[in-house]
Amino acid sequence: MHIETPKKTIAKSDKEVYDFLLDIKNFEKLMPENISKFEVLGEDKFLFALKGMPEIVLKLKDKNPYDKVVLGAASDKLPFTLTADIVSLGENESDVVLSFEGEFNAMMAMMIKTPITNFMGTLSENLHKI
Prior knowledge:
The protein has one domain (2-129): 2-Layer Sandwich (Alpha-D-Glucose-1,6-Bisphosphate, Chain A, domain 4), CATH 3.30.530. It contains 3 helices and 8 strands; from the N terminus they run E-E-H-H-E-E-E-E-E-E-H. It has helices at residues 14-22, 27-30, 106-125; strands at residues 2-4, 8-10, 35-42, 45-50, 56-64, 68-73, 80-90, 93-102. Strands 1, 2, 3, 4, 5, 6, 7 and 8 form an 8-stranded antiparallel β-sheet that branches. The radius of gyration is 14 Å and the shape is globular. This is SRPBCC family protein. It comes from Sediminicola luteus.
């Protein structure tokens, strides 16, 4: 399953966006209002839960300075990645596209597609908080 947010232009340099996303605790600022739990588990891992959803642990899986940050599920039960692609538009402006990639059976995909799409949309909208 692939979900991608529309491109979001942010009034920050690619380095500022990258550094913000690399600091795991900053993800709390991007979370939706219906978050019921957020806990930093290490410098590269955090746990969060949305009301009515199970807890999810995300871990920093990959990074490419100033243009990509990849988080992935810490558990192999639900393998997925959340990628932020950053494109510099100039000294103080960047485009960011968030994408979700996961392998789920048809039933699971049907159940989680809408909540994941909404979650990704909220993360993207909240990028202005950087």
